[in-house]
Amino acid sequence: MNKALTYYKLITGDVMKNLFSKYYWSQPIYKDDLKGVLLNGLIFSVLGGILAGALDFLFVRLGFPLMFGLIIICYLVGTRMRGGYYTYHILYPTLSILFMIIAFFFSEVTQMCLLYQDISILPSILSSGSFYLNFLFGPFMMLIDTIKSFNILDMVLDILNICIYFWAFAYCYRMVKGEN
Hints:
This protein has 180 residues and is mainly α. It has helices at 2-12, 15-19, 22-25, 31-61, 68-82, 91-116, 122-127, 129-149, 152-177.
């Protein structure tokens, strides 16, 4: 039992304790800090998402199937949000996760725009449910498809993509929190 608890604390650290503690959420939020965090996070989630989508499209065309665009998004959003405030609040790392999701959305839209090259197709793609399903669960769906086809190399690459996916979100949270 102690080993499992130690392993859980090693994985989560103080993230869950801080995230759900009323004390940390009741701390004052300064208006200037919040404006800086929201502005930096929103601008760099859009710009980072577009840049990451273009680079991911280029990497896939060159035959390099890893999601390195997500690492770029993580770095851009995390560093800019970290520089956007003077006084720390637990809301800022939580907002970084939201901005990472927004950036990942813009990354997927950019990839679709570069793939289809016809802008008239974009509204029909964005209105379909399969785009949002792929946007949210893309790495997991690719892993399920490769398990069905039993291609070992693609399975390893998809597992690596899922690890990059979780690592990027956790690293951005920790970067904005000031632990990295």
